């Protein structure tokens, strides 16, 4: 099961040891198509679908015929709310709808494993023994990012649980985000250049996904 080894580093980018990861989670065969489907599903499900325009029947007024049918030299008109008129309705405009694209739970988990495997194969996963941020300090987090050689790249910090100090420390750093293991999905894995896991977090991912 544990056939893949990855280095564990400290925040100064110095080696602290190695960690074995299960093939079932981090050694999957690449599948860009499945990951793409998961990304499309995630993005579609973020859409609120509240856009709306009014058709001629939704606009108040327009019940009276604007002018008589004949002998005016103008085209026939039955309502001032016609889409051809100013202040008229909209033809085929967007209406509220649900954009949800459902993806089976098993497929979502498989997509996450394949996305993680592809990231690991491309050497885009870093494991830290811990992120010791005692107080919310953006400067400290910027220093950690620089020491890891990740300046200028989009970085996703994956934590095993909630850590308000880390969250507050990165919120003003462009392209750096924090996510908990419980919220990690294939879209987030694919969207960032580098993934930085804490040792506890990557162990949690390995154990949860291997059981699924």
List its traits.
34% helix; alpha/beta; Ribosomal Protein L4, Chain: A; 7 helices; elongated; 6 strands; 212 residues; six-stranded mixed beta sheet
Question: What does this protein look like?
Answer:
Helix 5 links the parallel strand 4 and strand 5 (176-180). Helix 2 (32-46) packs across helix 3 (105-121) and helix 4 crosses helix 5 (164-170). The protein has a six-stranded mixed β-sheet, with helices on both faces. Helices cover 34% and strands 17% of the residues. The protein has two domains: 2-45 and 103-211, 3-Layer(aba) Sandwich (Ribosomal Protein L4, Chain: A), CATH 3.40.1370.10; 48-98, no CATH class. It contains seven helices and six strands. The protein is elongated. It is α/β, with parallel strands linked by helices. It starts with a strand and ends with a helix.
As a percent range, the share of helical residues equals 25-40%
Average pLDDT: 92
Tell me the count of domains: 2
Question: How are strands sequenced across the largest beta sheet?
Answer: 2-1-3-6-4-5
Strand tally: 6
What is the name of the CATH class of the largest domain?
Alpha Beta
Describe the global form.
Answer: elongated
Major sheet summary line: 6 strands, mixed
Q: What is the helix/strand order?
A: EEHHHEHEHEHEH
The CATH superfamily of the largest domain turns out to be Ribosomal protein L4/L1
What is the chains' assembly state? Answer: single chain
- Structural class based on helices, strands and sheet pairing: alpha/beta
- Under CATH, the topology of the largest domain can be stated as Ribosomal Protein L4, Chain: A
Percent in strands: 15-25%
Give the radius of gyration. 27 Å
Compute the separation of the termini in Å: 14 Å
User: In the CATH classification, which architecture of the largest domain applies?
Assistant: 3-Layer(aba) Sandwich
Given as residue ranges, the uncertain stretches (5+ residues, pLDDT < 50) are none
Per DSSP, the total helix count is 7
């Amino acid at each position: 099961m544990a056939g893949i080894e990855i280095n564990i580093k400290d925040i100064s980018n110095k080696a602290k040891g190695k960690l074995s990861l299960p093939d079932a989670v981090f050694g999957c065969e690449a599948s860009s198509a499945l990951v793409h489907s998961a990304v499309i599903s995630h993005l579609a499900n973020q859409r609120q679908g509240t856009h709306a325009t009014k058709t001629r029947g939704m606009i108040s007024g327009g019940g009276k015929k604007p002018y008589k049918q004949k002998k005016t030299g103008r085209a026939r008109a039955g309502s001032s709310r016609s889409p051809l008129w100013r202040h008229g309705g909209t033809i085929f405009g967007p209406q509220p709808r649900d954009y949800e694209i459902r993806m089976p739970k098993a497929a979502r988990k498989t997509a996450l494993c394949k996305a993680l495997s592809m990231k690991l194969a491309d050497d885009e996963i870093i494991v830290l023994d811990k992120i010791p941020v005692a107080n919310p300090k953006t400067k400290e987090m910027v220093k950690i990012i620089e020491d890891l050689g990740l300046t200028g790249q989009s970085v996703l910090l994956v934590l095993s649980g909630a850590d308000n100090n880390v969250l507050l420390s990165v919120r003003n750093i462009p392209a750096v985000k924090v996510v908990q293991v419980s919220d990690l999905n294939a879209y987030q894995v694919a969207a960032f250049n580098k993934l930085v896991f804490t040792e506890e977090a990557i162990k949690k991912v390995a154990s949860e996904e291997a059981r699924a």
